[in-house]
Specification:
The protein is mainly α and 156 residues long. It has 5 helices and no strands. 55% of the residues lie in helices and 0% in strands. The radius of gyration is 30 Å and the shape is flat.
Length: 156
């Protein structure tokens, strides 16, 4: 058998993996994955260093907060007064379709701008509205798909 059909270089026939692609697609280098609860070695070392100094660090943070350091004040207040949702009366237009999202978002924005709702709470409420609209869109899509399938079945 001659060498006419063979590649000049044996690497020519190998599929090359580009930079940043050390593994074949769909084949993991670590099939078991990282064990649940396993922590990064750097995190473990940092935690060990900080454990001995935790009391001193908390004391220093409180001192900085009392001296007027805004970052330290925020950190202390977040730990002392945990964030809890609060009830707010808000006039919202009915949301029956994706077209109703603009007036609903406008109402949220208006209340936030007037100070009746914090920006954080406004963002959370906006996410709820977006989720509701996505649910309506999915329900509408399913309804339309069923109508098409029924029409197709009736023709067949």
């Amino acid at each position: 058998m001659g060498q006419e059909g063979m590649a000049v270089n044996f690497q020519q026939k190998q599929r090359r993996r580009g930079p940043g692609r050390p593994f074949i697609k769909g084949v993991s280098g670590n099939p078991a994955g990282r064990p649940v609860g396993a922590r990064n070695a750097a995190t473990e070392m940092a935690q060990a260093l900080l454990d001995d100094e935790a009391d001193a660090q908390v004391r220093r943070c409180v001192e900085l907060a009392l001296d007027g350091n805004p970052a330290a004040m925020k950190l202390c207040l977040e730990r002392l007064v945990p964030r809890r949702g609060r009830s707010v009366k808000l006039e919202m237009p009915a949301i029956e379709s994706a077209a109703d999202i603009a007036p609903a978002m406008g109402a949220i924005t208006r209340v936030v701008a007037e100070g009746g709702l914090s920006p954080y709470d406004g963002a959370e409420l906006s996410r709820i509205v977006e989720s509701w609209v996505r649910a309506l869109e999915v329900a509408d899509f399913e309804r339309r798909l069923k109508e098409l399938e029924d029409a197709h079945a009736a023709r067949a």
